[in-house]
């Protein structure tokens, strides 16, 4: 485990990004996608690069046994802090583990999981292969692998909406950019990650977009009010529908790919 790059980003990511309308849409949409494929609780779920648990704590609340693995002390401290806000039985279903995702198999001591999540992590790594290989190995026979990451085919969307036209023109074939948190990020394609999953014995089942209209509105300068719960729920319902369909999902800046490991 190297320097804790996430120490300086933890508050902005967990307290600010997730509290926004975009953050709420992300949590809702991904949770709904996962429920389409997960076996019932208390199936064990491993969240690799799970950060502060924003994606997997809702699963613990729904009855799943969650192991959250992350190399960042600062993110794990945030996870610990957020954990105390969950009901006692959900708290008892969560285990926190400090390790790099590239060492996940050893870190979980060879345990296999009904689902392995890796959301918003691959884009911060130079190459996806070593981590995807570990995700596939941690999945049990018949288990899911769920990856959310940047969509290399939609890289012109953000600079164009921010009216940075030279950057937008240069970005069509680009794989890297400085992301919204101010750190460099790398994007992948559904096709390439599907191939990587297959080489790990995991068959891609379905892919989705994540945000679309909220992204466009925010980059275009609109202010969305996260305290207006009726509007947030209505927005999330539209985003969920868009995430499942072409052509909308193809234009989402991030995609969610779900695969299943062969059953023995
Ligand atoms: C953008 S946050 C995403 C957190 C969480 N998955 C979510 O969606 O809310 C990225 C996370 O990846 C973690 N991370 C960075 N490098 C990693 C690696 N090599 N293996 C596993 N996690 C890593 C960071 O510590 C951070 O918690």
Task: Explain what the structure shows.
The chain has one domain (5-261): Vaccinia Virus protein VP39 (Rossmann fold, 3-Layer(aba) Sandwich). The chain has 13 helices and 9 strands. It has helices spanning 10-17, 21-37, 57-61, 73-83, 88-92, 104-107, 129-138, 157-161, 165-171, 190-199, 213-219, 229-244, 248-251; strands at residues 44-48, 65-70, 94-98, 113-119, 139-150, 176-178, 184-186, 202-209, 254-261. The strands form 2 sheets. Strands 3-2-1-4-5-9-8 form a 7-stranded mixed beta sheet, sandwiched between helices. A two-stranded antiparallel sheet has the order 6-7. The longest helix has 17 residues, at 21-37. The mean pLDDT is 94. Bound molecules: S-adenosylmethionine (SAM). Residues 6, 13, 48-51, 54-55, 70-72, 75, 100-102, 119-121, 124-125 line the site of S-adenosylmethionine (SAM). S-adenosylmethionine (SAM) is lined by residues 6, 13, 48-51, 54-55, 70-72, 75, 100-102, 119-121, 124-125.
Helix content: 40-55%
How many alpha or pi helices? 13
Largest sheet entry: 7 strands, mixed
Span from first to last CA?
33 Å
The low-pLDDT segments are: none
Summed over residues and divided by their number, the pLDDT gives a mean of 94
Strand order of the largest sheet: 3-2-1-4-5-9-8
Principal-axes shape call: globular
């Amino acid at each position: 485990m190297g320097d804790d790059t996430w120490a300086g980003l933890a508050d902005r990511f967990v307290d600010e990004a997730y509290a926004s309308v975009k953050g709420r849409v992300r949590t809702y949409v991904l949770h709904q996608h996962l429920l389409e494929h997960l076996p019932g609780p208390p199936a064990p779920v491993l969240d690799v690069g799970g950060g502060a648990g924003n994606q997997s704590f809702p699963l613990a609340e729904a009855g799943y046994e969650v192991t959250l693995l992350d190399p960042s002390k600062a993110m794990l401290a945030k996870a610990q802090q957020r954990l105390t806000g969950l009901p006692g039985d959900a708290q008892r279903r969560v285990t926190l583990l400090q390790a790099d995702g590239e060492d996940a198999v050893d870190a979980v001591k060879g345990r296999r999981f009904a689902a392995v999540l890796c959301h918003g992590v691959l884009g911060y790594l130079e190459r996806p292969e070593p981590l995807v290989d570990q995700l596939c190995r941690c999945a049990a026979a018949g288990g899911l692998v769920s990856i959310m990451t940047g969509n290399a085919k939609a890289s012109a969307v953000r600079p164009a909406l921010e009216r940075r036209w030279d950057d937008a023109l240069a970005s069509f074939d680009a794989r890297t950019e400085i992301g919204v948190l101010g750190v460099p990020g790398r994007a992948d394609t559904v096709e390439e990650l599907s191939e990587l999953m297959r080489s790990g014995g995991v068959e891609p089942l379905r892919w989705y977009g994540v945000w679309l209209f909220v992204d466009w509105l925010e980059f275009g300068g609109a202010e969305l009010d996260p305290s207006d719960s009726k509007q947030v729920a209505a927005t999330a319902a539209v985003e969920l529908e868009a995430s499942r369909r072409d052509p909308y999902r193809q234009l989402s800046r991030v995609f969610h790919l779900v695969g299943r490991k062969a059953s023995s």
